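Retro notes, structure queue

What went well: the backlog is down to a handful. What didn't: a couple of records were mislabeled last round, so from now on we paste the full input next to the output in the thread. Example, using Enhancer of mRNA-decapping protein 3 from Metschnikowia bicuspidata:
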Amino acid sequence: MTEFVNYRVVLHFKDGTETLGVISNVDSSQICLGSDTYQNSLVRDLKVVQLPEMPKKKHGSGAAGTHMSTPQSVSRADTPKVQKQPDWGIDNGNVKALQDFDFAANLAMFDKKSVFADFEKNKHTDVLARLVSLNKTSDKYDNDENVLTGQNSDNWHNIGSLSQRLTLPTPSAVPAKPSGLAKLYSLRYEDESAVVPLASPVQLLEIERLSAENFSANQKALTEVCAANLYLLILTQILGGSRLNQRKNHNLPPLVLLLVGGGRSSGRAFALGRHLTNHGVRVLAYVVSADMLEGDTLELCQQFEKCGGKVVSTPFDELLDILLRQLDTPVELIVDSLQGLEGQLSDLYYTAESMATLTRVVGWANEPQQSCKVLSLDISAGLDAGSGTASLPALVVHSRYIVSMGLPLSGLVHAYNNGTLGDDVTHYAVDVGVPNAVYRSRSHLRKFDKFWFCAELYMRHVAKSAAI
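Corresponding output:
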């Protein structure tokens, strides 16, 4: 590297300082400016400010014994004198006089590790923000780019079974839903012609008992009628109806998630899932605690699986992995059958493990991207069916739809009055096949003596309020 000796340069160091001097020596590890020596690893940049002077050629006579022909002098008296010297000899001439640039030696002086370390130090972009920008797909394509790439793999047929045991994660806190202003609510028919009579949980259970004892309309028959009419409601009002026609639709079918606890509501949820599965809808049931499935509910669960439904009872993180990574279709509807009218969540999920899983399930269902898809059977999980109050506000499911199976519960209006239900809830009631004669068989049931469902198999109710 001796060709750089006597160059006048400015050294820019990595700490922001700089120095000026003439190179007296340079090698692959250090550079000397006069008597000062600097390590190459400390240098960030080098700028040449002045080249060394070139030695002037001597205008002497030729070597001894050499005879040179001397041309005759030519008179240039008439040649005009140049007023200004050309500048090409100053710059271009000096460049031409330089030796070839040593690329290998200069590249050896380049410290890549320190440069990339500086890049990392000066980066202030959030990692998540970078990933979002990298994962964005183009909204517009050229005419030669409208080609579908390989589709994501779909693992619907390989999802686990009910036999898997629970190992539950740590629960997370769920923010309580803020209460509204004090108002007095009533539940009315869709045309607002009259107030809908409400039944207590005890009255509903008595109506179903009388149907079985006096009219042979047992629980299995009521469950089948309820599931068929509930399927029709969901198909026409929520899932879009005609778009499920597989003969005209090449897309994957919609996905419905059942949140299953135990008892009457869970059994009807399994029957609903079987009807949806029979009509081409993907239905995945998540059982919070497999020990709660017994009797008729367990039988309906087995029928649901035989018809093509999927039942999992795994840790909640595995359910999220199935929904987000293993399936290529998003959840379009979440059916909440965690509680129903039988009791409260604290009575049904009495073990620490089941309560921890329930907390995570409710917290996930209440997230904004899921809460708009939640349909609760009879009443939102976490609310008392009679009083409409919430003993554990963090475990109240924020429903978008509430479907009364037969008669509406009195706890719905109480939940509106105490602020645990919001005005954005849509109410329906479906026919479960209770004979109308049941209402005339007991005096305290005669307020329900009417033809609830005429030409309709389901009807919509509207919650109306009046400020106190």
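Agreed that this is the format going forward. Reviewer comment attached to the example: The first strand starts at residue 8 and ends at 13.
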